[in-house]
Amino acid sequence: MNRKEAEDYIFASYMRSEKFQSYNDKDKNKRHPELTKEILENLSTGINIGITGSKGKGSIANMLSQILMAKFRVGLFTSPHILKINERFKVDGKEISDEDFIRIVEELKIDFDKIEKNLPKSIPISPIGIEAAIGLKYFKEKDTQINIMEFGKGAKYDDVNNVINKYCLINTIFLEHTRELGSSLEEIANDKCNIIKKGQICAYSASQDRQVLKILKNKARKEGVKIKVYGEDFYGENISYSFDGMTFDGVFKDRRIKNIKIPLIGLHQVKNAVLALACAIDIYKDLPIEDIKKNLLDLKYPARFEIISKNPLIILDACINKKSLEPIKESLKALKIEDITSIVGIPDDKDYFGVVSGVKDISKNIILTKTSNSHYVFTDEQRQKLLANKIFVETSPDIKEALNMARKCKSPIIILGTTSLISESKEFFQTSGLPQNL
Fold first, then answer.
1. Are 422 and 324 in contact (CB under 8 A)?
2. 116-129 pLDDT, tens per residue?
3. What domain range includes position 41?
4. pTM of the predicted model, to two decimals?
5. Is Metal-binding tagged as a keyword (predicted)?
6. Furthest CA-CA distance within the chain
7. Is residue 131 situated within a structural domain?
């Protein structure tokens, strides 16, 4: 195998079955985590930590990795990636090499092929199940002490939930992925609460809607797992914004950590960091605080209110729904960034309308664009629906043209969209000679 062939293998079973599945089916009807259960349980060693929620899972996972690296050897599994699949598998912040990635896929292929050969045409092995196995096998080879595993969109039918986790973190849950997880907040919470399992030491939750928190606490009580909640057991205060990130204090039951700095922007990122710290402190109460602070300053997590250029000011964020837009607008207001040009590249089946209608009041201009990824559908129906609601937009065939149009507006630019748009934006910035602050 070469790297592309190894990557294609991860998705081969899914691609085989996709045409035999109903697009509108719920996860419970088309996902089969039982197929990878034995493999992932057998690969579960050391202390594993699972992370779910509706947004910000990757931010928390990266923060927790940086924090725990102050004392432990840490494996990190996240998704999706921006430029290269290797980004999904890291040990102490370093991506897996092409050679190790290819070798591990080839080794695991033997076991997964045995499963694949007996499957009906409509049932696949989940790509995230194969990826989780790659991560765990790599971490085992590298003798990691703690592994952080980011879940996909759900938990109950997510293969990552086959990993034996000692701790779990649950970021804020809101209405998203309704086609797959359920049409109500309660349905989505009842799916994601399954990350809490008997035998875990503790679960940690962000601040939640009252009904969601009730579901999480009931699940924790049923499984005999202690649960700690942002605002009840830990919180952040003395919070300040700058173009270089956030500064805050983390307050816990028996201690306060003062003057923490992170190079990410937004109140939600402070909450993410405090949530990660709450878990880390319980794992090892004597974590070296000054080392933690230094590690957090080295945190790099692209496309989360990422200031890609200061002159001209260009901000990049992988935002695909109106709920995720709220902290972006809050950050723009705090930094006094006004009269922006918004570039939006969100597929038809995601919340493009919510995002565009949400940025309307802060934008001088709005430009709709699309990506070259064939799995995403972009049609003129977006423009027509917006026009019917008296929201006027310009259109562009790709990010390069969209940026050319936006720079003529001579205003701050924010790019909002799906991961493939972020990838294409990054690739364009790398070859365009545009001033960057990466």
1. no
2. 999 999 999 999 99
3. 3-298
4. 0.91
5. yes
6. 59
7. yes
